[in-house]
Write a structure and sequence with these properties.
- This protein has ten helices and 14 strands.
- The protein starts with a strand and ends with a helix.
- The longest helix is centred in the last third of the chain and has 21 residues.
- It is about 35% helix and about 15% strand.
- A seven-stranded mixed beta sheet has the order 2-10-9-8-5-3-4, with helices on both faces. The chain has a three-stranded antiparallel beta sheet with strand order 11-12-14. Strands 1-13 form a two-stranded parallel ribbon.
- With about 350 residues, it is α/β, with parallel strands linked by helices.
- It folds into two domains: about 240 residues, Aspartate Aminotransferase, domain 2; about 100 residues, Aspartate Aminotransferase, domain 1 (Alpha-Beta Complex), CATH 3.90.1150.
- Bound molecules: pyridoxal-5'-phosphate.
- Pyridoxal-5'-phosphate binds next to helix 3.
C-alpha cells in the first residue's frame, strides 16, 4: 500500500507510528485478551491510560496542578455552548473576537445564553486578518478567541493581555503546534481531529479556579464542567478509542522532542510553502494578510476558478490529497498539521512549482 500526502483539514493526518502501534495492539490491549474497543472504560488499564495522558499533556504544556484536563464528546461545537452556559452569568457580559466561521458559531451560541459583546471582528475584510485594536471590558466574565482560523487561514501570532478577565481559547486547529505560555489561558479547548487525534473527543484544559466563576443554580449535569472535573472525565462512557489514540499521539509529541521540536518543523514546512507562493509572480495569491498568516492552514487562490479546479484534480493524481479550500470560501488550502511530514510539504511545493510553469 502506498500512503498519500494528506493535507486534509480535519479529520487529518495522524503519525504513521501511532497508527501502526494501534494496529499492533488492536486485538489484544495490554495483554487483556481483547481489543480496547471491547474493554470497559472502568477497567484498570483504561484508568491508567487516561491518568497517563493527562500527565503527558500537562507536561507537554508545562502546566501546574492548577489546571485539569478533560476528554469529552460532543466536538468543539459543544464547547461553544458549554462555555457561556457555565460562565456567562446573568447581569454580566462576555467578550468575543470574531475571526472567522468558527468564532461566528461560538458567538451565535453565546448570544442565546446571555449578553455577548463582539469587541473586534475582521469580517469587514473577509476575515483575512487578526484584529489588533480592541478594548476588553474589565468586567467581562471572559474573553473568547479562536487561535487559528481553519477555514480562513489566519492565526494569532501573540495573545492579548486580559488582566483579570479569563482568556478562553478555541485551539482546535493549532493545539500543540508550537511553544506557548499556556498559563495565560483559563480554558483551552480543541477538537482532537485537527492536530492531536481522531474525531470523537475534545480536549479541554481548564483552570480549576474557573469553577468559582460558574453561574449559580442547578446546571444540567452533562453540560456542567464540574461534573466532568469531579468524575475525571468518567461521569459517563467517554470516547474510549479516540482518547486512546490521543494518548498515543501525546507520547509521539514527547518523542519528537516536545513543542520546541514540533514548532521548528512546523515553521520549516510553512516557510517552504509561503516562500513558494510569495515567489510565484502573483500566480499563487495567499489570502491572509502577511502578519496574520497561519502555519497550520495555508490558504491561497489561483488566477481563475478553472485553474483551481484543474490543480485540485492534478494534485489528487499526484497523491496530494485534501487541498480544496472550504466550500464556503473556495480556493486552495494546505493543512500542515503536526503529523504532516517535511517530505509531504516538499512534495507539495515541487508540485506547485511545476504546475505554475506549465500553466502561466
Ligand atoms: C473544526 C473546528 C471546530 C469544530 O469542531 P467539531 O469538533 O467538529 O465541533 C471548531 N473550531 C475550530 C477552530 C475548528 O477548526
Amino acid at each position: 500500500m502506498e500512503r498519500v500526502h494528506n493535507f486534509n483539514p480535519g479529520p487529518a493526518a495522524l503519525p504513521l507510528e501511532v497508527l501502526k502501534q494501534a494496529q499492533e495492539e488492536f486485538l489484544d490491549f495490554k495483554g487483556e485478551g481483547m481489543s480496547i474497543l471491547e474493554s470497559s472504560h472502568r477497567a484498570k488499564s483504561f484508568d491508567a491510560l487516561i491518568i497517563d495522558a493527562k500527565k503527558d499533556l500537562k507536561s507537554i504544556m508545562g502546566l501546574s496542578d492548577e489546571y485539569d484536563v478533560l476528554f469529552l464528546g460532543g466536538g468543539a461545537s459543544t464547547q461553544f455552548a458549554m462555555i457561556p452556559y457555565n460562565f456567562l452569568k446573568e447581569g454580566t457580559t462576555a467578550d468575543y473576537i470574531n475571526t472567522g466561521t468558527w468564532a461566528t458559531a461560538a458567538i451565535k451560541e453565546s448570544k442565546k445564553l446571555g449578553k455577548t459583546n463582539v469587541i473586534a471582528s475582521s469580517e469587514d475584510r473577509e476575515f483575512r486578518y487578526i484584529p489588533k485594536d480592541f478594548k476588553i471590558d474589565p468586567d467581562a466574565c471572559y474573553l473568547h478567541i479562536t487561535s487559528n482560523n481553519t477555514i480562513r487561514g489566519t492565526q494569532w501570532q501573540s495573545f492579548p493581555d486580559t488582566g483579570n478577565v479569563p482568556l478562553i481559547c478555541d485551539m482546535s486547529s493549532d493545539f500543540l503546534s508550537k511553544k506557548l505560555d499556556f498559563s495565560k489561558f483559563s480554558l483551552i479547548y480543541a477538537g482532537a481531529q485537527k492536530n492531536i487525534g481522531p474525531a470523537g473527543v475534545t480536549v479541554i484544559v481548564i483552570k480549576k479556579s474557573m469553577l468559582e466563576k460558574q453561574r449559580s443554580g442547578d446546571l444540567l449535569t452533562m453540560l456542567n464542567y464540574k461534573t466532568h472535573i469531579e468524575k475525571e472525565s468518567l461521569h459517563n462512557t467517554p470516547p474510549v478509542f479516540p482518547i486512546y489514540i490521543v494518548a498515543l499521539v501525546l507520547k509521539w509529541v514527547i518523542k519528537q522532542g516536545g513543542l520546541p521540536a514540533i514548532e521548528k518543523l512546523n515553521d520549516k514546512k510553512a516557510g517552504l510553502l509561503y516562500s513558494c507562493l510569495d515567489n510565484s509572480n502573483g500566480f499563487y495569491r495567499p489570502t491572509a494578510d502577511k502578519d496574520s498568516r497561519s502555519k497550520m492552514n495555508i490558504t491561497f487562490r489561483l488566477p481563475s476558478e478553472e485553474l483551481e479546479e484543474k490543480i485540485a484534480g492534478e494534485a489528487k493524481k499526484a497523491k496530494l490529497i485534501g487541498l480544496k479550500g472550504h466550500r464556503s470560501v473556495g480556493g486552495l488550502r494546505a493543512s500542515f498539521y503536526n503529523a504532516v511530514s517535511l517530505e509531504s510539504a516538499e512534495k507539495l511545493v515541487e508540485f506547485l512549482e511545476n504546475f505554475r510553469k506549465a500553466n502561466s
